[in-house]
Amino acid sequence: MADTVVRRFAARLHNLRSERSMTQETLAARANLHPSYISGLERGRQIPSLSTLEQLAKGLNVALPVLVDFPESSNKAKDRVREELELIAMSLKNCDVATVRKARKIIDLLVSA
Fold first, then answer.
1. Would you say 9 and 68 are in contact if contact means Cβ atoms under 8 Å apart?
2. How far is CA 81 from the centre of its chain?
3. Residue 77 CB-density burial (10 A; 0-12 exposed, 13-18 middle, 19+ buried)
């Protein structure tokens, strides 16, 4: 079981990094980790601590739940939608209510089109 979780996490980390066109070196620098450690994580040879997971999430600019949310069956389209929604939420997190309402109206227009 744990081995499966490690493999799924390794794939998730690799996919998130690749989707952002980041090298292992870039992610390592942003997460304040060593590039060889990132490689080990992506190969399933390293198991990250909770604080390392937080560093990785910050380096990837995703919320921690996005980093560790890897379903049993791989549905990349649904994963990508969830990630995009998370990015939108993060962008609006520090906005005032008026700006969030404007964004919602724009989204409503896009979705209903």
1. yes
2. 12
3. exposed
Measured distance CA(13)–CA(76) in Å, rounded = 13
pLDDT in tens, the chain (113 residues): 457 889 989 999 999 999 899 999 999 999 999 999 999 999 999 999 999 999 999 999 988 988 998 765 556 677 678 778 877 887 888 899 999 999 999 999 999 87
Spatial separation of the C-alpha atoms in residues 29 and 95, rounded to whole Å: 28
3-state SS class at 89: helix
Cα dihedral 40, 45, 47, 53 sign? positive
DSSP 29: H
